[in-house]
Amino acid sequence: MSDAIITVENLGKCYRLQHQQRERYTTLRDLITNRVKSLFGTQNSEPGTQNSEEDFWALKDVSFEIKQGEVVGIIGRNGAGKSTLLKILSRITEPTKGRITLRGRVASLLEVGTGFHPELTGRENIFLNGAILGMTRAEIRSKFDEIVAFAEVEKFLDTPVKRYSSGMYVRLAFAVAAHLEPEILVVDEVLAVGDAEFQKKCLGRMEAVASQGRTVLFVSHNMATVRALCSRAILMKGGSVGCEGNVQNLTDMYGAVEIEDTETENIPAGAHRPGNTGQAVFQTIRICNITGAKTSQLYLGQPFRLTLTLEATSDIREAVIEVGLVASDGTHVTCSRTLDGGAEPFPLPRGRHEVTLEINAFLLPRRYSFALILYHFDGHIIDWVDQVQSLTVANIAEDSSDTYRFWPSIRGYVRPEGVWHLPFPQKGARVK
């Protein structure tokens, strides 16, 4: 008998897609013919339409095993099949074919507030959600105080959850799922809604769950988080398992592929956008060197300029833009905000706008992408798009006279402009 707590064998999930195309024009003869056919039940489509169906396999021949106590990261691009896989493992969706064996109770957190009733209070939803997860009332009561303390919603415990912010929702949902001692904890990319302090608490809780011998499946687009939490990774590609194994190797591979697919100036329609409200969206991002020429490659020490366009569907009184620099391994290197230097939030009227950011950071040779965040001054996210555009910083400086044109050993991401004071003269040192 296998010691695996999760066994997936040749799993497949197929959806039937309906397509309806309008004919260019319909004649009176066509209308009369279709009406007569409909009287005899031989015409199923509306006049002037052509129907077709197509099978779409969201998952194809997926097989893997996960042992008890493993923390496994499920990574891959949008549409790779990650969420479909977790829904099947959580028994929310039935597979089309294949077999899954689960040896233990599963608690899943796939969407913010899954299993919550908006009209019920936080207190009532803890008991409701716990019951949905298969817990008795006594088990829920024994963990109740821990759940409330972790979620930090004591003041709003008797308030209907429909009045909760998205952050309060996810805190309570995660607290219930993580404290009811499942053998298998399944977590999709919902932690992006929480703030940095809450994400840290969640990671600590998942580490504690894993240290108790329980199994965690974790889906995330943040490769740094996956590496910090997971012991193994599964990379999904086009509904299938691309490869599985060492988390460092797979996250590096994923980062390279993800950035390769973001070379265009337009932000892809399928880009990962946690927290988008629809009030405004980033549309394009363009990298230029200091002369204004569009580029995707810089040399060591070169400054560059980002030009962003965004479309606002309504007036926003106090807006803030933040641009984060992300290394290909998912590490967030640094960021710049419109509030830097003591500036105030700005009004963003409805319409299309273009903003420019000049960056003088001395980036070390690596591949980078950008995270773009637009939010209200009070912290509520308006649009957030991860891993867009690609920037490669090369090792050789453009000016061959630069004394730093080549570094044989590169560590880190940014080189600070330090000032050294040595007790002995340096050969070739510049004297001011």
Describe this structure in words.
This protein is α/β, with parallel strands linked by helices. It has two domains: 65-260, P-loop containing nucleotide triphosphate hydrolases (Rossmann fold); 280-394, Coagulation Factor XIII, Chain A, domain 1 (Distorted Sandwich), CATH 2.70.50. It has eight helices and 18 strands. It has helices at residues 28-39, 82-89, 122-132, 137-151, 166-179, 196-211, 223-229, 247-260, and strands at residues 4-22, 49-67, 71-75, 97-102, 106-109, 184-187, 215-219, 232-237, 240-245, 280-289, 297-299, 304-312, 316-327, 332-337, 346-348, 351-359, 367-376, 381-394. The protein has a six-stranded mixed β-sheet, sandwiched between helices. Helix 3 packs across helix 5 and helix 7 (223-229) packs antiparallel against helix 8 (247-260). The termini are far apart. Residues 259-263 and 397-408 have low confidence and may be disordered.
